Amino acid sequence: MTSDSETKALLDNGQDPGQPAEPVQYASLGCNQDVAIRVIVIILFVIGLEMGGLTKNQYVYKWIETNSNSTNTALNASHENSPTTSLDPCGSNISAGNEKTDQSEATLWLLYFSLCEHGISIPMILLYGSYSDFVGRKPLMIIPCIGNCIQYAIKAFIVYKNLPLVYFFIAYVCIGLCGGHYPFYLAMMASVADKTDSNNTRAFGIAIVEAVIGVGVCAAQVGTGYLIKDFGYMYPMVATSGIFGLCFFIVVFGVSDTRSPTSTKHITLLVYLKQIFGMFLSKSHIATGSVFTFNMTMLSFFLLYMVATVFNTIGTLYELRSPFCWDSRTIGWYGFGTDIVQYVFGLFVVKGLQMCLSHGAVIILALLSSIATCVITGLATSSLMLYISSGAGILSVMARPLLRAFASNMMDKDKQGAVFGNIYVIEDVCGMLGKTLFSEIYARTQTYMAGFVYLTMGAFYLLSLIIFIFLLCYKHGKKKNLRIQR
């Protein structure tokens, strides 16, 4: 807990010069019940995201597979029960050439949807993140719940009416205005930062939130596969909308805020802009380190998240094609196993490594694990190799929360909303750029090497690793020079 004097000092550092200091009280988490409610709502929220995302990815591919060759519909129907039908390597009544065309078209549609959502949400995340330092974290949890509930209700109607894919843009405009799912994660991460010190405790706390997210992902992976197999695509969309509606009520009535609202009557647009962008330009906004080290950390995170934002989306399409030919249930079980390994086991491995290694060294190992899983996946020629890649990537997911904590540790507590706002803006930008780049690569390399995109992803992880090692060397050199000067 932060004492009254420490709280006042922190706030005075962040107060706009010339304005009277208005102390901010950090609300208590209260009791274990509040923590339990937070865990439940995170799991539910992530189940909704994962269920909706998996359903959408598979629906888009299935819709294109069914509708893209409309001129040949009658011909395909006449051959449907014929023993001479030309089958693709996965056994569908389409040619191998059509499989590659459908894969490419599905990838591009998913890219367009992503660009629509992320393009709108970037300024909203900047606004919500900085604003949460003044109005509290709870509003940031409420807004995405409402947006996602509406988004998937619209998608369910589109699936029910079998409307063209272009109507999905209505749903993506809606969720984009709510900042996507990022404000929810921003609020959760900032809440951890509100209640922890800038050390391994904060890093592990943020890693725990990531692991809880992983539990939600695991729960959704298997269930979604069976839902799609047994009920089609509309009912999972309806269920997803209902889950987000439930999250809304739980957050409103069951979650307390870790930061009490303050008066904003003296807060101008200039103060918000300083809160958002000052840390990239001025040392006065950074508690430890320098502007250069903070910017290098953000660059390393940017390269890492360029891959992370699109890995699973392309992975679903990759697993549907030959030589794997997985159905929705197999994809679900594979995703479940992968998430158990990378989120749950990975968390315990990180905790063990933190006992004997520095924070920076653990991040290096996590990035090496990320490179390994990309290379093995890209070269995979059988399902067994995909299973091996999951094991090799045991620390790959943990690289994200560890780098977030590394950046958070440089900032005062009264700027955690702003720093996580910047982090999630970077994630949102990566959602646009990463999906644009890697979706194009995947679509254009279908004819000669479908896994080439994963090798490209591995190169991005490698560049992130090189920058981070340079950053650690730079910080070590600065500390050594200070010792010599003393």
TrEMBL record:
The chain crosses the membrane at residues 35-54, 109-128, 166-192, 204-228, 234-255, 286-311, 331-350, 362-380, 386-407, 450-474. One of its GO terms (molecular function) is transmembrane transporter activity. Residues 1-22 are annotated as: Disordered. Its main location: membrane. It is a multi-pass membrane protein. The keyword Transmembrane helix applies. Keywords: Membrane, Transmembrane, Transmembrane helix. InterPro entries: MFS, MFS_trans_sf. It is found in: Membrane. SUPFAM superfamilies: MFS general substrate transporter. It comes from the Eukaryota. One of its GO terms (cellular component) is membrane. It holds the Pfam family MFS_1. Gene3D superfamilies: MFS general substrate transporter like domains. This is Proton-coupled folate transporter. It comes from Mizuhopecten yessoensis. The lineage of its organism: Eukaryota, Metazoa, Spiralia, Lophotrochozoa, Mollusca.
